[in-house]
Structures are given as C-alpha cells and as structure tokens.
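Bug report (template v2)

What were you trying to do?
Predict the complex of my protein with NAP.

What happened?
Run completed; filing so the output is reviewed.

Input:
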Amino acid sequence: MKNKIRIAILGGDARYLEMTKKLAENNHFELEVVGFDQLNEGFFGVKQTDLEDLSVEELDAVILPVTGIDEDGKINAVFSNQKIHLSTDWFERLSKHVVMFTGISTPYLAEQIATHGLKLIPLMNRDDVAIYNAVPTTEGAIMLAIQHTNFTIHDANVFVLGLGRVGMTVANKFNGLGANVFVGARKASDLARVNEMGLNGFHLDEITTYTESCDILINTIPASIVTSDVLKTIKSNALIIDLASKPGGVDFAYAKKRGITAIHALGLPGRVAPKTAGEILAKVINQCIL
Amino acid sequence: MKNKIRIAILGGDARYLEMTKKLAENNHFELEVVGFDQLNEGFFGVKQTDLEDLSVEELDAVILPVTGIDEDGKINAVFSNQKIHLSTDWFERLSKHVVMFTGISTPYLAEQIATHGLKLIPLMNRDDVAIYNAVPTTEGAIMLAIQHTNFTIHDANVFVLGLGRVGMTVANKFNGLGANVFVGARKASDLARVNEMGLNGFHLDEITTYTESCDILINTIPASIVTSDVLKTIKSNALIIDLASKPGGVDFAYAKKRGITAIHALGLPGRVAPKTAGEILAKVINQCIL
Amino acid sequence: MKNKIRIAILGGDARYLEMTKKLAENNHFELEVVGFDQLNEGFFGVKQTDLEDLSVEELDAVILPVTGIDEDGKINAVFSNQKIHLSTDWFERLSKHVVMFTGISTPYLAEQIATHGLKLIPLMNRDDVAIYNAVPTTEGAIMLAIQHTNFTIHDANVFVLGLGRVGMTVANKFNGLGANVFVGARKASDLARVNEMGLNGFHLDEITTYTESCDILINTIPASIVTSDVLKTIKSNALIIDLASKPGGVDFAYAKKRGITAIHALGLPGRVAPKTAGEILAKVINQCIL
Amino acid sequence: MKNKIRIAILGGDARYLEMTKKLAENNHFELEVVGFDQLNEGFFGVKQTDLEDLSVEELDAVILPVTGIDEDGKINAVFSNQKIHLSTDWFERLSKHVVMFTGISTPYLAEQIATHGLKLIPLMNRDDVAIYNAVPTTEGAIMLAIQHTNFTIHDANVFVLGLGRVGMTVANKFNGLGANVFVGARKASDLARVNEMGLNGFHLDEITTYTESCDILINTIPASIVTSDVLKTIKSNALIIDLASKPGGVDFAYAKKRGITAIHALGLPGRVAPKTAGEILAKVINQCIL
Ligand SMILES: NC(=O)c1ccc[n+]([C@@H]2O[C@H](COP(=O)([O-])OP(=O)(O)OC[C@H]3O[C@@H](n4cnc5c(N)ncnc54)[C@H](OP(=O)(O)O)[C@@H]3O)[C@@H](O)[C@H]2O)c1
Ligand SMILES: NC(=O)c1ccc[n+]([C@@H]2O[C@H](COP(=O)([O-])OP(=O)(O)OC[C@H]3O[C@@H](n4cnc5c(N)ncnc54)[C@H](OP(=O)(O)O)[C@@H]3O)[C@@H](O)[C@H]2O)c1
Ligand SMILES: NC(=O)c1ccc[n+]([C@@H]2O[C@H](COP(=O)([O-])OP(=O)(O)OC[C@H]3O[C@@H](n4cnc5c(N)ncnc54)[C@H](OP(=O)(O)O)[C@@H]3O)[C@@H](O)[C@H]2O)c1
Ligand SMILES: NC(=O)c1ccc[n+]([C@@H]2O[C@H](COP(=O)([O-])OP(=O)(O)OC[C@H]3O[C@@H](n4cnc5c(N)ncnc54)[C@H](OP(=O)(O)O)[C@@H]3O)[C@@H](O)[C@H]2O)c1
C-alpha cells in the first residue's frame, strides 16, 4: 500500500480555510495545520498542531502563507495569536525531497531554499494562478465600479490599460456587462486580439487622444502609465481603479488635486472571494503534487 | 415662431437632477423647478420657483416625483424643506391639454386626474421604462452578490426566477459574468427563450428538484414563490436577493430561521445609478412630449 | 395498468425522421407511421403501416405534415410514392378526443376540424416553436451571410429589421459573432430591449438615415419594409437576406435593378438542421400530449 | 516636402485587390502593380506596370504574393497570364533599404534576401496577422459546420483542440453561437484561460475520456492529435474540421474507414473573406512601413 503524502500548512488567511478543506478531500493527503488555533477543532476536520509538535523530517510538502516569510523568519497566521518562526534549523530538518509552496518568494525564504537545496513553488508567479485569480480580481473591480459611480457600467466608456492576464479578464467581463470597452496596449498582437474580442483598441502612446470620453479607467499595468498628462484629459467625475501592485500606475496625488476619485484596490481575490481564492490554490497545489 | 413647451418639475429625488439637466438640453423646452431650493441656484442652469409663483395656467407639462402624490396631496421633494401641497384648486387651474408625468399613480392623484379630465403618464408602468431600469436594477443585484458572498459569480449556480423585463436582464448579465444561470418560469415560450439564450430553464412547478445546487437565487416574481418548501432545499450558505416589490416573493422569516442570508433589495436604480435613472426618465419624457 | 397513447404520423419530410425517433423514446407512446415506405423497415424501429390498415378509431393523436393538408385532402409525404388522401369519411372515423397536430392550418383541414369537432394544434403558430425554430433559422442566415459576402460578419454593420421571435435571435447571434448590430423596430419597448442587449436601435420610420453604412441587411418583418426608397440608400455590395414569409418584405425587383444581392431564404430550419427541427417538434408534441 | 514611399506589388490573389485599394488610400504611398493585367485599367486607380518597366532601383518596398517565390524564382499572379520571374539580377538592383513583404518565406526567397542583405517581413509569421486571420478562418469553420451537419451549432458539443491564435477565436465564436464548447490543451495556463472564458477544458492527454459526446470537432493543432484511438471514441455522425496546415492533425484515412466526415479546410481567409483578408494585410503593412 502506498504511503500518504504528508503536508503541513503553516499559517495563512481566510483563503487557506477553503484551500485546506479542498486539500482534505484528497485522500492521498495527510494534512496538519499550524496557526489556526483560534478556530474550533472541528472546523476543517483537519489535525491542528503546534510548530514544535510537527514531525518536520517526515513532511512531503509545506504550504506557507501567500505572503511568504518575513525578514525575521516569521510567517503570517491570521487565525492564531502565536508567533510562528521558521529558523534555519527548522529548514535544516526538512527532507531534501520536500516541496514548499508560498504565494510570493521573499529574501529570507529564497535564502533558506538556496541554502538547503529545496524546491520552492511561488504560486502567485504561476500563469495559471494569475489567470484564475484574474476572475475574483475583476469581480472586485466591478463591485467598486458600481459602488463608486452614479451611472451604470452598461453603456459607460470603460478604459482598460494592459491586456495581460488580469487586463484580458477585466476587458472580457466589463464587455459582458454592456460597457463600451477600450483597451490600451503596446503590442500589435494585443491590439489584434482586442479587435478579435470585439472591443476598441488603442496604442498606449496615443492614450491622451482617447481618454476624454472615459467614464471608468481600470489600470492593470505595473508602471507609471496614468500620469498627470493623462489625468489632465480625464473628466473629473470619472472613476479610476488601479489594480497594479504597489506603487501602482496612477499619479494618485495629481488625481486628488484634480478631484478625480482614484482607488488603489489591491488583494481583491482574498477580499471579495476568499473561498474561490482558496479553491484556486488547492486546485493548483493538487496538480503540482500529483 | 413656435412657442416653447413649458414644463414644471415639482419635487423629486437624486434622479431628478440628471433628468432635469437632460431635459434642459432640449431647447424646445422652458423648464421651471419647484422643490430644489437646497441646491445652489446655478446647479442646473434652470429657473427655481416657489409653487405659488408658478404660472400654472400656462404649463404644457408637469413632472411629479416618482412616488406620485400622497393621500394628503403632498409630494416628496428631497432637496427642499418646504411642504409642497397640490390642492384640488391647483389642479383646477391647469390647462386641459397639460400632460402630467409621475412614477406611479396614487389614489389622490388618480382622483384629481379623473375629476379634471387630465392626461397622466405613470412612467414606471411603461414597458420601455421598466426595461431601461432593469439594467441599473441588475447592476445593483450584481453588487450585492459580490459583496455578500465569499465566492465568485463566475462559475456559481445562479437561479433567476421570472423572465419578465427584470428577469431577462438579470439572466443576461449574470451569464455575461460567467455564472451558470438557471431560469425558472411558467410559460413554455419563456422556457424556449431561455434555451435560445443558452441558459438552463426549468418550470417553476419543479423548482425544488433544482434548487439544491443553487449558490445565488434572485427572485423577480411579485408572488409568493420562494416558500419554506423551496427554502428547505437551499444550502445555508446560499445568498437570496429578492427584487420583487413589496411584499416580495421570499419567506424571509423562514430564511432567517434556516440561517440563509436573504436581502429584499428595492429601489436599486435610484440607489446605484441615479444619474442613469434620471437619463432614462428624461429620454422617455422627451419621446412622450415630442 | 394504464394504456399506451396511440399516435399516427402521416407523411412528413426529413424533420419527421428525427421527430419520430424522439417520440419513439417515450414508452408511454405507441407509434405508427404512414408514408415512409421508401425507408428501410428498421430505420426508426417504428411500425410502418398503410393508411387503410390504420385503426383510425383507436388513435389518441394524429401528426400531419408541417404543411398541413392541401385543398384536395392530400398530404405531403416525401418518403413515399403513394398518394395519401384524408377524406371526410376518414375524419369521421376519428375518436372525438383525438388531438391533431399540423405545422400550419389550411382551409381543408380547418373545415374538417370544425365539421368533426376535433382539436387542432398548429405547431408553427405556437410561440415556443417559433422561438426554438428561430435558432436554426438564424444559423441558416449566418451560413448565407458567410457564403455570399467577401468580408467577415465580424466588424460588419448588420441591420436586423424586426425584434420578434426570429429578429431577437438573429440580433443576438450576429452580435455573438462580433458584428455591429443595428436593430430597426417600431415599439419603444423593443428599442429599450435593443439598448439592454448592448445593440444599436433605430425607429423604422428613420431607417433611411442609417442604412447607408449597412453591409448585411436581414429582414424578419412580414410587411413591405425594404422598399425602393430604402434600397436607394444601400451600398450595391451589401447583402440582403429576407427571412419573412412570402411575399417577404423586400422589393426584390428593385434590388435586382440596383445590382444588390437579395436572397429570399425560406424554410431554413428544415434545410439547415432537419434533425434539430425534428427534435423541436417532438419536444413540443410531448409537452402537449402529457 | 517629403518624398512619397514607392511600393511595388508583384502578383497575388483576390486578397491583393482589397489590400491594394486600402494601401492606395494612404497618400504617402506611390503604388505600382505588376501582374494584374487581366483587370480593367481603372479597377484600383493604381498604375499597372510590367516587371521590366518598373524602376526597381527607386523602390522603398516590394510586396510579394502570400505564397512567396517558388524554387525557380517565379511568383503567383492569378490576375495575369504572364510569367513573373524575379532573378538574382533583379534583386541586385534593389536599394539596400528596401523592405520586402511576403506571406511566407520560401527557400529561393530566403536565399535572395540573405545574398543581398535585404529586410524580409513574412506576414503570415506575425502574431498580429495570425490573430486577425483567425476571424475569417473561424467564420469559414462556422460555415462548414452549418453546411455539413443536420443539427444546429447551438446546443451542440463542439470540441476545439488547441488554444493558440486560431483555437482561441474558434472557441470564442462557437461559444457566441450557443455551442457547449470543450477545449483541449496541454498547458495549465491554457486550461485556466479556458475556465475564465466560461468554457469546459480538458488536458489533451485525457481526450478520449471526453470525445464520446462530441458532435463537432475542430482541430487547430499542427500535430498528429486526432489519431485512430481518438476516432474510435467519436460518433459516426460527428463532423471533424481540421484547420491545421498540411498534413493536418487528423488520421483522415481512419476517419473515412469509420464513416466520419472529416474535412481538411485550408486557406479559409482567402476563400470566405478575401476582402477582409486583404484589409488585414494592408493594415499591417501600413504599420510596418510607417
Ligand atoms: N489588485 C489585485 O487584487 C490584483 C490581483 C492580481 C494581480 N494584480 C496585479 O495586477 C498587475 C497585472 O497583473 P497581470 O497578471 O495581468 O500581469 P501581466 O500578465 O504581466 O500583464 C501586465 C500587462 O502590463 C503591460 N505592461 C507592463 N509594463 C508595461 C509598460 N512599461 N508599458 C506598457 N505596458 C506594460 C504588459 O504588456 P506587455 O505584454 O506589452 O509587456 C501586460 O499587458 C500586476 O501588478 C499584479 O500584481 C492585482
Ligand atoms: N428591486 C428593484 O430595484 C426593482 C426594480 C425594477 C422592478 N422591480 C420589481 O421587480 C418585479 C418584476 O418586475 P418586471 O418589470 O420584471 O415585471 P414583469 O415584466 O411583469 O415580470 C414579472 C415576471 O414574474 C412572473 N410572474 C408573475 N406572477 C407570477 C406567478 N404568480 N407565478 C409565476 N410567475 C409569475 C411573470 O411571468 P408570466 O409572464 O408567466 O406572468 C414574469 O416573468 C416587480 O415586482 C417590480 O416592481 C424591482
Ligand atoms: N425564413 C425562415 O426560415 C423562417 C423561419 C421562421 C420564421 N420565418 C418568418 O419570419 C417572419 C418573422 O417571424 P417571427 O416569429 O419573428 O414573427 P413575430 O414574432 O411576429 O415578429 C414579427 C416582427 O415584425 C414586426 N412587424 C410586423 N408587422 C410590422 C409592420 N407593419 N411594421 C413594422 N414592424 C412590423 C413586429 O413588430 P411589432 O411587435 O411592433 O408588431 C415584430 O418585431 C415571419 O414571416 C415568419 O413566417 C421565416
Ligand atoms: N485553415 C485555415 O484557413 C488556417 C488559417 C490560419 C491558420 N491555420 C493553421 O492553423 C494552425 C494553428 O494556427 P495558430 O495560429 O493557432 O497557431 P498557434 O498560435 O501556434 O497555436 C497552435 C496550438 O497548437 C498547440 N500545439 C502545437 N503542437 C502541439 C502538440 N504537439 N501537442 C499539443 N498541442 C500542440 C499549441 O499549444 P502549446 O502552446 O501548448 O504549444 C497551440 O495551442 C496552424 O497549422 C496554422 O497554419 C489554418
């Protein structure tokens, strides 16, 4: 009889609840969770342990929080008051075949991985995770667009900057809601795809010749794109939603000066759909382990 | 030279600001507004008057609030502290060719109209207004669905009850967001249309054989449809949004008992998109007058 | 034990093959077919009979061809060389509770029904059948549009006249293919629905102010709509597809004079998708009988 | 004053008519065409020349047929009876700054380009051209699917193999027509995108567990994918359309043996929409030259 795959989940946020439930459905896995002590024992039907009680040497996989490990070796566990610290000694005890999952890599984590010759899978870097997460991200943007405007998305002129993994989904879904979608991109192939999607495309170099009609602008480009020059052309009752990671792509100070509402909306999957976000992680971890 | 059409707008809410602006763009119209005295004079560029200063005899059209006139003859003016009362004498002074607009007719109003032989257009009864308003109503439902669930609309099983003016739009837009939409209706032709829309249809008589898989239920039928028998089949983490006018179609007490979140969401166009709602009114009034 | 429902299928075309197969799956039914003698015995697994061998008195339902009965009492049976004639005597023998199905009623048939006090269901008059058939009709129009133009439907300006059962589907599907769809209608509520569908609407009275940009025009209105005045405004390399029943809504003679390709495309469901068309008939007959 | 850009178009098929017309609209260009002598002089309003009369030394750009140059140096000119041969001497006369366009590169052409140090743009290799052409390709597949089945695309189970430039458009458009689309791919990110598009995805390794339900299979993968093992699982009344370039991805001999209709449909843009295909070429050439 084949042995079960032993997996430890160390810390994490609301997404990890659903992720753990889903992983627990796979009966090839034997799970233990650390850092969920504020939850009722029966919550997942999964064994809760303290870090020191974990049989570290026998683990096949370790799942760290989406945020990785901070510079002091601590991890984030929102359902625990304990401090969870993963020392060099702790990493030393891990078997060489262990697979570590994290959302993003961090300097401390990268160093441990290198030192001990381990395998790290930073989930948020994966194309499939980014595409799956684009859906809850977009729903978050839709919610904000409805909340922060006094007009409908339907028939509004919605500008989407970037046609990457998030941008394509944002463009698709706002189109599905009846907006007039304009996509700004810099690659000829992206503009061809925009045309194929039945949307209006423009080259980012010419953005200011289009933005006057913009009602809602959604930026997905992690670069300084919505500069003061662009903002000058935008109506003061337009809404700007910046989805790009810090520092974002919008000159927020200038937007404020012009009286334009500009929202830097980060971490949307975990905020609007932690259950879905957890299922996404479980699905991909499942595929990576099997 | 043709005379201008003289229109008085008496009271109203946020929707009436945009409506007034739009009507003011038509230069065949001469507008006066009563009941907006809390707003800055220059706000619309439209003349503000008191009821007593209005040349009632010369009016061609009168626009009453969406809510009509209450049993005491008073109208609702959210941008004024004054009480506006339309007496039988006031109606007596109106020209016989005047057209009166209201959202809904009310007993007092109906009586005045009958007594004085006037023409009344209750806008909210009109098919075109109901269809245009279905869009902001649906966006309101989408916002609620994103806010009150921890999963995405995408891939969720969304049940829409009724394929009337609102139901068709709700079904269309949730489909546009990637939900698996199931529509319950009672007419064979509605079920045929559901199939043509690429959605799943079921006869309302058989609702309980389907509802177990329901993640979000949106009712548009103004009749007791989501009874305790139906609610018994629904998962406790499902979300119910009832859009039907009071008293709605959901057994809210029973839903509460079962721990199911059930929201009776009324007046959504005015809440989520007053500007669009105002434009809709202006568009239809324009067509009715011209 | 409940008796089976006895159904005779008399004549019919390719659609009736699939219809018969589907009805035969219902084991409450006992089927006999007349007028399919050119087909192999085992084709349907359904009993083939001659008209004279039919136990007419015992029938519960009779299914006539889509085209009904001609003025001489003959029916159309494309899979037979025999002449099938339904005389007054034959009708006389039918039980009073029998249900007769036909596509359309015809004078001879209507007279027999009236004389003998029978129940007739002309399937093509039903809303549900018309909506289901709108799908294969539209696919036929799509095929013609691809065949008879040298440009793509995607990005073409496609004008749809009428927003009835066929028009709505035509508009929906051409939109799904990326066309810029313009719908002409005369009802304010239809124009509201067109807006909600995310399409461009215009009042039929103003058609000539829009048609200059038209690449493909699809008429669904059974009235003289595409007159010489309209045709004058249309580009000579545009394509016109008239779906309306005879005589259609297009001035074909004038179109020819102007060198515009105009196709009167009738009976599309039976031509492009007889299997689907047969399934539709079976589905609705099933619902009517049960 | 800036000089005009001198462009020679040498040979080509129906697509080149529209392409030439579109390029002629750009008044920075001075065009000459060779190999269109069967057409009326006034057809394009563009100067027709013989190869020997061309001022080769002064050209800024040369546009060759989509098919490039054959091994003997000849090019394909469907609107001419003349043989057009481009010798090494002819290439020698070209200025070093000339840009040459072709659909695909060929050995003879590649050699000339290398020998004379010229710049060649094989249009069909470009991502943007492939994406634009995916649209007429897909419309061709739609036409074939309607013609060669007796059921509707709506509600049919349509399998699309590959989610490249063509596959994505095929999947999108058949979805737009109401098919149940299943996409087979091998990359996890492609399967994530399929989910985001609201379609069903499966890994190509598991294709045979899905194909039993397939009504229409459309292959876009230029590799042996639809093998006899796959064909064994497919219904004999299913339709297979292979879009992949020669030799395609389908075991046609085996399909024939099993009685399955399998069509190898190549060159669809030029066949179903030469005007659009020509516009695509003109658009991209314009962008490359400017
Ligand atoms: N707010 C949230 O909740 C949330 C959720 C998920 C992701 N995100 C963030 O959203 C952003 C986009 O994520 P993604 O997955 O879509 O990334 P992606 O697939 O890499 O797409 C990035 C897009 O930005 C464009 N771009 C990058 N640099 C550019 C520049 N200098 N000028 C013009 N265009 C440029 C890229 O175009 P090229 O292809 O031409 O380079 C591409 O279209 C990231 O910052 C990500 O962290 C936020
Ligand atoms: N929440 C908001 O902000 C908001 C906004 C707009 C409208 N509304 C309300 O939403 C409701 C629907 O409006 P609408 O414009 O869509 O109305 P509608 O066009 O009349 O549609 C009503 C639908 O309910 C069905 N129905 C009515 N009585 C039924 C019964 N006893 N059993 C089964 N089905 C029944 C109708 O089916 P049949 O065709 O078979 O009768 C139809 O599909 C109304 O109460 C309206 O006041 C609310
Ligand atoms: N070619 C085929 O294979 C095929 C297949 C199915 C049906 N058909 C034919 O297609 C036609 C449409 O069928 P349908 O089921 O869509 O019918 P329908 O539901 O009755 O729709 C007819 C449409 O035409 C409009 N209309 C009628 N008379 C008009 C007039 N005088 N002026 C302006 N608009 C007018 C109606 O508008 P209002 O609502 O304002 O009256 C409605 O939008 C019929 O002739 C039918 O026999 C053909
Ligand atoms: N019939 C016509 O009129 C017409 C028109 C245009 C194009 N075409 C032809 O259609 C085909 C597709 O063109 P395209 O532009 O879509 O190409 P593409 O963008 O390169 O896409 C090719 C697809 O095939 C997949 N693939 C390739 N080799 C594979 C293998 N061994 N196993 C599994 N999947 C494989 C690729 O997946 P990965 O990303 O995983 O490699 C990708 O999804 C080409 O042969 C092209 O010449 C035909």
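What did the reviewer find?
Chain C touches chain D through 26 residues (CB under 8 Å). Chain C has two domains: 5-125, 129-270.
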